[in-house]
Amino acid sequence: MSTRAASRPVGTVTRGTTNPNRLRRMDRWIAAVHGAELRRTADPVAVDLGYGAAPWTAVELLQRLRAAAPRTRVVGVEIEPARVAAAQAYAREGLVFRHGGFEVPVPGRPSLIRAANVLRQYEESEVAAVWERLCARLSPADPATGSGGGLLVEGTCDEIGRRHVWVALGPEGPRTVTFATRLGSLERPSDLAERLPKALIHRNVPGEPVHSFLHDFDRAWAAAAPYASYGARQRWIRTVRRLTADWPVTDGPARWRQGEVTVAWGALAPRA
Known about the structure:
Layout: H1 24-40, E1 45-49, H2 56-68, E2 73-78, H3 81-87, E3 95-99, E4 112-116, H4 124-135, E5 151-157, E6 163-170, E7 173-181, H5 198-201, H6 209-223, H7 232-243, H8 253-256, E8 260-264, H9 265-268
Parallel strand pairs: 1-2, 1-4, 2-3, 4-5
Antiparallel strand pairs: 5-6, 6-7, 7-8
C-alpha cells in the first residue's frame, strides 16, 4: 500500500470497472449469512469500499441489505474524488458517498465492509496489512448478546458477476472462503481459480491447500457427471456433498442450490 499523509485516503486508485448486478451473488450471500447480525444491530452501517467509476454496486447493496435488515444504511467510499462527486446524484435516504480509502471514513464501527475487486491490483504481500486495518474498523463481537461482530467481505469476480470467490473476515480475522458461480456457465469447478482473491490466486500451485482443494473439487465434479442429466444444480450439490468428506464445508444444501460452497479459511490458507 502507498505511504500517504495521515490526512489523505489510504490506498491507490483502482481501474474502477463496474457493471450493474456484478456483485449480486456476493450481496445475496451477505444478506443470507449476515442479515441476522444487521437486524440486531441498533444502527447497522454497511460500507461499499471502492465502488468504482459508477455507484451501481452501492445502490444495489442498499436494496439487497434492506430486504434482510430494513434499518441498514450504506456508505459508498471511493479514493478517486471525481467518482465521489459523480455519485452524489444517486445519494438518497440511507445512502451517502464519501471520499476515502482503507481508513474507512465513517463514524463509529461499521457492521459490514464489502471490498470487491479492490485488492486485485495490490501485491500479495500487502493483503494481510489491509485485512488487519479493515478488520480493526469493524464493530466488535459481543458474546453477551450473541453478536459475532462486523463482517469484512473481500474478493474478486468477473465483469458480469458469473464467477466469484471471496473471503469473509470478522474482527478476529479470516473465517471462510466462498466459491460462487452461475452453474450453467461452468465447465469445471477449477474455472473459478481465475477469480481467487489476491491472498490465494498466486497459491494455486502444487503443495498449496487451495490447489489441492480445486483438484479435489474437479474430481468430485467428474464423479458426479451422471447427475448432470438432472441439471447442473443437482450435479453441483452432489459434488459438494462429496467434498464434505475431506474438506470443512461450513454451509449446507440451501446455499449449494445457489451455486455456492463455503469452506473454513484454515483449510485453504496459504502455507507459511
